């Protein structure tokens, strides 16, 4: 029903009106006309002694049914459909909120602050929930409970007086505002720091200056509605529902469905306008990067490593053929084209690291390599070729977040910190490094070593500590963007997820074949919800971070898959490097009929609810 002007001035009563206390509805009869439709339930009608049809009593509503009616009523009220709300509350025998809360709402929205403060005193008794009253008979507990409710009431009163003070200032009533500040706000002895800030607003020369400094919308409906939203959070829901409660519940339901969707790989939109509430959320597997989009065959030997740049526009691949190839990623078509070939690495390239600004690329070799190459990606020129000793083994590298330093090391006990010219800044003796990572704090370097552990090293105060301890060799590891999680490839065990802050093993992922080859896994997708890893069984495995079983197995490579890299900007793009000499680029399914796409890509379901995709260009 569409609301008219007459309905705008009435606010419905609010919590369920268990009117007459006997479960009967307050509506006068079973038939009601709202001007559009008239309905009479003749089939269920009964006759009284005079032969006149009487309507049966309506069943008493359950608590959940009352709650739903109140939620609907609040939503309709926010839409301005006040007559519809009145009718709904009348027929259901419910009330939207307590009458004292309705008075309080009206006085706040009308700016009648003295009346609103008086209403707040009435609401005090309603703020003490039954559970709070009977918590304990012990005096200490009761004092704590009373103090809690005192603070809540003081906070509400402070918010009311703050709005009153700001409105006086905007109206130019400086003396009245000063009186509120001195005689009403200050005696509360609540949030004195905020009171000092409020007193500074007395110096504002005009209303625009006040609104800008106070970050306040000004006197009127907008600021008062925001004030009311804050005040509602301090009142029990039986008295006044939290603001926009139905929308909040719907958003939570949508977010939960997205979180439980195994293939959701797009940016989360917190609004409800972008989704349909009439259907459950479900992403198709065809939207996931499980289909071969491109096969790069320019390397002429085993490809040991691949890594997308931080901005997602380039891919670097390193090979046993002693070259590094930098590929350009077309962000529209997701196709890759050869950009530069960097040559001269005598031992092959087994590890690559992009600088934070993607201007430089560092290349490392296998165990017997004592050299490190630092390339200018844009010009293709070698800026630094570093070697401290011919006996060194520099097999891993990690950039400091400032982009001016890097750390490198290997299994022969070398662990260096250097500048961009290869000058040695610091060193740590006796650490046999397998893999390295610099945390975002700019001080801590994580290093996995030959003692099956990951330790944190601080080059500034020369301290170190144990963070992760495994029972088998850690072949490689990578860290999530927020620095909280570490993904380890563990010899003979597979892929393990660790919480670096709590220092606990979170999950062991199943399916992958991991021996003593170095395989590099990665986080990926929006919010890094997914994990991918190569495998010695020639496959790429993908898991949802919260699930131990793989959600996808990608086939197409014919030898061990050494490394995978998920594009950090394009969540639908994944690269894998293999001993078969190729790099495969994986993306969503092409725009084909479902049966055709599944037939071309050999997709099939497995007993673990994962599916296998045969790569097709």
UniProtKB/TrEMBL annotation:
Subcellular location(s) per record: Cytoplasm; Mitochondrion
Residues covered by region (Disordered): 1-60
ATP-binding listed as a keyword: no
Segments forming domain CTLH: 97-176
Single GO BP term: proteasome-mediated ubiquitin-dependent protein catabolic process
Keywords: Cytoplasm, Mitochondrion, Repeat, WD repeat
Compositional bias segments (type: Polar residues): 18-28
Residue ranges with Low complexity bias: 37-52
One GO cellular component term noted in the UniProt record for this chain: mitochondrion
SUPFAM superfamilies reported in the protein's UniProt record: WD40 repeat-like
Predominant location category: cytoplasm
WD repeats by residue range: 296-337, 342-373, 554-586
Protein name from the UniProt record: WD repeat-containing protein 26
Species the sequence originates in: Myripristis murdjan (pinecone soldierfish)
